[in-house]
Amino acid sequence: MSPVHSILFALAASTVSTFAIPILQPTDVLRLDAHGSFQLSVFSDLHFGEAQDTLWGPEQDINSAKVITSVLNAEPNAALAILNGDLITGENTFLHNSTKYLDSVVAPLVKHGMSWASTYGNHDSDFNLSREGIFAEESKYPLSRTRKMVSASDAGVSNYYLPVYGNASAVPEFLLWFFDSRGGNYFQQKSAAGNSVPQPNWVAQSVVNWFTQTRSALEKNHNRIIPSVAFVHIPVNAMAAFQATGVNKKREPGINDDNPLAQQGSASGQGDVSGTTFSYNGQDIPFMQALLDTKGLKAVFSGHDHGDDWCFRWTSKLKGMNLTGNGIDLCFDRRSGYGGYGSWTRGSRQVVLQKDKEEVETWVRMEDGSVSGKVTLNGTYGQDSYPAVRS
Ligand SMILES: *[C@@H]1O[C@H](CO)[C@@H](O)[C@H](O)[C@H]1NC(C)=O
Ligand SMILES: *[C@@H]1O[C@H](CO)[C@@H](O)[C@H](O)[C@H]1NC(C)=O
Ligand SMILES: *[C@@H]1O[C@H](CO)[C@@H](O)[C@H](O)[C@H]1NC(C)=O
Ligand SMILES: *[C@@H]1O[C@H](CO)[C@@H](O)[C@H](O)[C@H]1NC(C)=O
Ligand SMILES: *[C@@H]1O[C@H](CO)[C@@H](O)[C@H](O)[C@H]1NC(C)=O
Questions:
Q1: Lowest mean pLDDT among 94-98, 164-168, 181-185
Q2: How far apart are CA 303 and CA 86, in angstroms?
Q3: What is the edge-to-edge ordering of all strands in the sheet holding 172-179?
Q4: What is the model's pTM?
Q5: Any residues with CB less than 8 A from the CB of 214 and at least 6 apart, and which?
Q6: Residue 10 DSSP SS3
């Protein structure tokens, strides 16, 4: 609990016997529902704050907010919203009010009484916008569960985990991991030539170290492996390596229009900030290795590539890689926002975790209320045949 939350909590506790005050409740721990389920609604690539000097800029932010509201109305069991990166389009924002867009991003969640947890994306850092600034703005909301658990200067911000409990509070039933894949440009920095200064766009080694140590400590403290899922904005190289082998539209149903996709360490492809100069050189190998070494980690969810929303099971040594998959599922979210590139129907990936069950249910809830790409990430995912989705 942050000091602000403690104060609000104390305030709420001291006044609760006299009258109910309509202040935001402090965030309590996350719990499974009465059926032992936990549903997440993932909103990815919202891209607020574009072209505010035009009519369509503010209008697309209104439309993005409507996506959040209509999805949450259609998914009454959702217990937590995930904002999986690119909340704001930093290159379009002004220094004096760039973080204010965060208030518009979370307004539909606050109205719904829905708590949320964020990762930040490459567009959340630019000359006029910093992820630290977004984090400070988010932290004003008791409904925000976003944290910063790694203080190394190169770590980025949104690196943390959240436990999900059953009825007992001693041992979490699930862990939700959040990683910062950084990217974009450094805040208020220009090169000698007057250009923006790009920030590395992969999960930092300092974060990998924190992850492996924290995971081991949790396992040791609880004397068991806690099942988990993870969120990171930019996908890892295994997704690109798999895509190159061919995404099967029945076995991995979903749109596959960003091909080749943009991944960690690579600035080629769509969705990257112009002027970024990184090229792929295995920068995400330590992170992928750490994911593979994490017992109980079921799936990793990424955004960034607006035109892809499939899930694949990484079971083998894919061409061009030295790492061998262990059966982990790597999934794309569905792009939710009206900002950014592409005109695919907006939607939100839903993820259902179930106590004592290996399998994860997931589908995309579209803005228009329809459901797309519903699959069960169970023992035969990758072999089962599903209806292909319309693109
Ligand atoms: C928690 O306890 C309640 C009340 O006893 C019960 O209805 C519910 O099923 C329990 N939930 C879980 C996940 O065990
Ligand atoms: C940053 O914001 C300032 C004013 O707040 C504006 O004058 C400037 O053009 C912006 N710079 C960039 C690169 O967007
Ligand atoms: C930020 O400032 C710009 C220019 O002054 C304005 O057009 C825009 O609406 C402001 N945005 C917010 C979220 O306050
Ligand atoms: C795979 O391992 C070999 C031998 O260590 C190394 O030369 C090569 O660069 C590695 N390839 C990748 C893609 O990591
Ligand atoms: C996995 O789920 C699919 C779709 O519901 C089903 O057809 C398949 O039989 C399941 N596999 C296992 C091992 O339960």
A1: 164-168
A2: 9
A3: 30-31, 160-165, 172-179, 228-232, 297-302, 328-332, 311-314
A4: 0.92
A5: 149, 161
A6: helix
Look at ligand 1, atom 6, and give the residue with the nearest C-alpha.
Answer: 34
Rounded to an integer, what distance in angstroms lies between the CA atom of residue 119 and that of residue 177? 10
CA distances from 104 to 88, 101, 173, 179 (A): 10, 5, 33, 23
Q: Give the ligand with the smallest distance to the CA of 363.
A: 5
C-alpha 170 chain-centroid distance: 26
282 CA distance to ligand 4 middle (Å):
9
Rounded Cα gap, residues 308 and 335, in angstroms = 8
Atom 7 of ligand 4, residue of closest alpha carbon: 322
Q: What are phi and psi of 48, to 5 degrees?
A: -70, 160
Name, in order, each residue with C-beta under 8 angstroms of 343's C-beta and a sequence gap of 6 or more: none
Ligand 4 centroid, distance to 197 Cα (angstroms) = 29
pLDDT, tens only, 239-249: 999 999 999 99
Q: Where are the domains of the chain?
A: 3-377
Asked if residue 203 has its Cβ within 6 Å of ligand 1, the reply is no
Which of these, 198, 197, 203, 183, lies nearest to 283 by C-alpha position? 203
| Sign, Cα dihedral of 272, 182, 106, 90 | negative
- Assess contact for 341 and 308: CB atoms under 8 A: no
Domain 3-377 has CATH 3.10.20.810: no
Backbone angles phi, psi at 230, to 5 degrees: -135, 155
Residue pLDDT, tens place only, 80-104: 999 999 999 999 999 999 999 999 9
- CA of 54 relative to ligand 3 center, distance in Å: 11
23 or 105: which carries more pLDDT confidence?
105
Q: What is the CA radius of gyration of the chain?
A: 20
The residue type at 135: F
Residues 67-76, mean pLDDT to the nearest whole number:
98
Residues 6+ apart with CB under 8 A from 26: 1, 5, 6, 8, 9, 12, 142
